[in-house]
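step=encode ok
step=design start
structure_in=
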């Protein structure tokens, strides 16, 4: 069966009113609300966007798809199965605790138990703390995508998520589409802290004063996130000045938004690959290689 591969392009809008207002509060609208505050409950774009705001990964991709250090300041390959990460020693969680290698190991073990993430980490044998600020990721065999997978490791505050909640349920439980401590509470290392959440309506953040990355502080003190699923309504909110930033921009409105004086249209290449499977069992014509070639 032939696959048709395409490059997904993400379009974002930044409204000039944010700068005019002093850049203190950023009003954002996306097409989807995170299903939960638990970064391991659902593997989705909305969850990853939230994770980058409230947590920080070990490493992350730049726009040119090269990797840059984040909570891991450097790394090295020890042998065919072991990649060693050297962690920053000045990182605090929102709770005030210092992040250590044990938090990375705890987070890794939780990812291995997550229904949505465990398949990604199946090639890994374990994570192992070498000392307080050094951790090894050990694979079952030679594996070339260790650094790619490290972009999904957002260290969590193991003490904050340890113990039981008011209902006697484990705080570290990963509960799909249900109520849990982790789905409603967060302690990360990221630049923003969640201050208020109304599922499907509103999500508010404030800047974390003790954020480790002082080199790029930014000028946004608060973020108000509003999920707007309907594309036309999302664009209308931007053009009316109700929000400062939306994403994605529907393809049908690209020219309209680009021509608007209020906004800047930013197009970014995506790492996502979309596939179309041509089902030869259901469509007889797909058995003909000439048809598959024409589709491609």
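sequence_out=
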């Amino acid at each position: 069966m032939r696959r048709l591969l395409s490059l997904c392009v993400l379009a974002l809008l930044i409204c000039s009113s944010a700068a005019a207002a002093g850049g203190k509060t950023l009003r954002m609208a996306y097409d989807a609300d995170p299903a939960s505050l638990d970064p391991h409950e659902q593997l989705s774009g909305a969850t990853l966007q939230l994770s980058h705001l409230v947590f920080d990964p070990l490493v992350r991709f730049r726009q040119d798809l090269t990797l840059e250090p984040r909570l891991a300041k450097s790394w090295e390959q020890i042998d065919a199965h072991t990649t060693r990460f050297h962690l920053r020693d000045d990182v605090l969680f929102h709770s005030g605790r210092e992040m250590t290698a044990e938090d990375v190991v705890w987070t890794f073990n939780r990812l291995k138990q997550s229904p949505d993430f465990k398949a990604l980490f199946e090639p890994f044998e374990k994570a192992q703390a070498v000392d307080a600020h050094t951790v090894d990721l050990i694979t079952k065999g030679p594996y070339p995508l260790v650094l790619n997978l490290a972009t999904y490791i957002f260290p969590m505050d193991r003490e904050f998520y340890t113990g039981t909640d008011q209902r006697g349920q484990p705080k570290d439980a990963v509960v799909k589409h249900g109520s849990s401590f982790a789905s409603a509470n967060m302690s990360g290392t990221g630049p923003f802290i969640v201050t208020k959440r109304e599922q499907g309506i509103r999500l508010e953040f404030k800047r974390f004063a003790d954020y480790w990355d002082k080199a790029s502080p930014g000028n946004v003190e608060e973020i108000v996130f509003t999920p707007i699923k309907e594309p036309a309504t999302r664009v209308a909110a931007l053009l009316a000045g109700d929000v400062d930033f939306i994403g994605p921009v529907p393809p049908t409105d690209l020219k309209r938004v680009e021509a608007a004086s209020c906004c800047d249209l930013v197009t970014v290449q995506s790492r996502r690959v979309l596939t179309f499977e041509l089902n030869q069992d259901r469509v007889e014509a797909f058995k003909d290689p000439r048809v598959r070639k024409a589709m491609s």
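step=design ok
step=annotate ok -> The two ends are 12 Å apart (CA to CA).
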